[in-house]
C-alpha cells in the first residue's frame, strides 16, 4: 500500500512539473503568431469568410476534434466521464468551426470508444449533411476508422459512398493544390480506415488511411506530449510539398496507473496551450508543416487560432 501511495505522489510531482514547464514557456514566450489577432465573424462559415476562390486546400490549418462522436458515449455520470472527449454534438462542433472529424465504429455501425457505445454512424452522416445544407463553401475531412479490437462493418465503404453521394471529394492528389471554389459543390474528404477490409482504391470516392497521418503518443504528461508533437511535426515535409494530411492532437490521455481517469481534468493540462503550440511552431521554424490541429472539447478560440493561420497564409504573412 505504501509503495503504491509513493508511486502516485511521484506521478503527481511529474505532472505538476510538466504543467509548470508549459506555464513558464507561455510566460516567457507568449502565444502570438502572424495574424493571431484575427477572429472570424461567423464560426459556422469561417472558410467562406476567407474567400473560397483564394483558399487552397494546402493553405488551410484545419481545426479538428478528437474522438468527435463521444458527446453521448456510455452512461451519463457513470462511464461517460471516462470516454467523453467532446461535450457537444457533431452538428454543434461543425457550427463552432470544426472541420476535421475523428469517428470510430464497430461491427454494427455504431460509434464507439473502446468498449463504450453510442449512436449509429448514420446520425454522424446526417449531421454532416445538415450542416453542409446550411452552408455553401465549407469543406471538411471526415475520418472514420474501425475501433481497435473490433471488426469492420460489412459493406461499409458502399454505405459511406451512398450516404454522402455527390458531397464526396474523390481521391485525387491534385486536390491539395486546388481552391475551395474549384472543389465545389463537393465538400467532404472522407477517409475510411478499415482494419481488415480492403482499403479504398485510388481515384474513388473514399480516401485511404495514408492520406491522414499522425504520431500518437499515449501519455498524460502535458509537456511530454507538447514536445513529442513538436518533434514529429518538425520531421514532416512542408504542407506545400505534401500529398497527405498530417495531424497534431493537442490532447493528453488518462492513464490506468493514475487516479485521475476522467478525460476533461486530464486534457485540461494541455488544453489551454493550443495557441502556444502554434506560436512555438512559428518560433522554431515548423509552422509551414501545420495542417490539421485537433483537440478535445473544442472551443471557438481554438478555431480562431486555426483560421488565423489560414488567413495569414493566404495574405502572405507566413
Automatic annotation (TrEMBL):
Entries under InterPro entries matching the protein: PI-PLC_domain, PLC-like_Pdiesterase_TIM-brl, PLipase_C_PInositol-sp_X_dom
UniProt xrefs under CDD domains: PI-PLCXDc_plant (cd08619)
Q: Which Gene3D superfamilies match?
A: Phosphatidylinositol (PI) phosphodiesterase (3.20.20.190)
Molecular-function annotations in GO = phosphoric diester hydrolase activity
Give all residue intervals belonging to the Phosphatidylinositol-specific phospholipase C X domain: 60-193
- Please list the GO biological process terms of this entry: lipid metabolic process
Q: What is this protein called?
A: Phosphatidylinositol-specific phospholipase C X domain-containing protein
| Source species | Dioscorea zingiberensis
Amino acid at each position: 500500500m505504501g509503495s503504491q501511495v509513493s508511486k502516485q505522489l511521484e506521478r503527481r510531482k511529474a505532472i505538476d512539473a510538466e504543467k509548470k514547464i508549459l506555464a513558464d514557456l507561455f510566460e516567457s514566450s507568449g502565444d502570438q503568431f502572424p495574424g493571431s489577432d484575427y477572429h472570424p465573424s461567423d464560426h459556422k462559415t469561417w472558410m467562406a469568410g476567407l474567400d473560397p476562390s483564394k483558399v487552397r486546400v494546402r493553405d488551410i490549418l484545419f481545426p479538428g476534434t478528437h474522438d468527435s462522436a463521444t458527446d453521448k458515449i456510455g452512461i451519463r455520470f457513470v462511464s461517460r466521464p471516462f470516454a467523453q472527449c467532446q461535450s457537444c454534438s457533431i452538428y454543434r462542433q461543425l457550427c463552432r468551426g470544426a472541420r476535421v472529424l475523428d469517428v470510430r465504429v464497430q461491427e454494427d455501425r455504431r460509434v464507439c470508444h473502446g468498449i463504450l457505445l453510442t449512436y449509429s454512424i448514420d446520425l454522424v452522416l446526417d449531421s454532416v449533411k445538415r450542416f453542409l445544407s446550411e452552408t455553401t463553401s465549407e469543406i471538411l475531412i471526415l475520418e472514420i476508422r474501425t475501433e481497435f479490437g473490433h471488426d469492420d462493418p460489412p459493406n461499409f465503404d458502399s454505405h459511406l459512398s451512398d450516404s454522402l453521394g455527390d458531397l464526396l471529394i474523390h481521391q485525387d492528389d491534385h486536390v491539395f493544390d486546388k481552391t475551395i471554389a474549384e472543389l465545389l459543390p463537393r465538400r467532404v474528404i472522407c477517409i475510411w480506415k478499415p482494419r481488415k477490409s480492403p482499403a479504398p482504391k485510388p481515384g474513388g470516392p473514399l480516401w485511404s488511411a495514408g492520406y491522414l497521418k499522425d504520431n500518437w503518443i499515449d501519455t498524460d504528461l502535458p509537456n511530454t506530449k507538447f514536445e513529442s508533437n513538436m518533434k514529429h511535426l518538425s520531421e514532416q515535409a512542408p504542407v506545400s510539398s505534401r500529398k497527405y494530411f498530417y495531424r497534431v492532437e493537442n490532447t493528453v490521455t488518462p492513464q490506468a496507473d493514475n487516479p485521475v481517469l476522467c478525460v476533461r481534468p486530464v486534457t485540461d493540462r494541455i488544453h489551454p496551450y493550443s495557441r502556444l503550440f502554434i506560436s512555438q511552431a512559428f518560433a522554431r521554424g515548423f509552422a509551414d508543416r501545420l495542417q490539421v490541429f485537433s483537440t478535445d472539447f473544442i472551443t471557438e478560440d481554438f478555431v480562431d487560432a486555426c483560421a488565423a493561420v489560414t488567413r495569414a497564409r493566404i495574405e502572405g504573412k507566413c
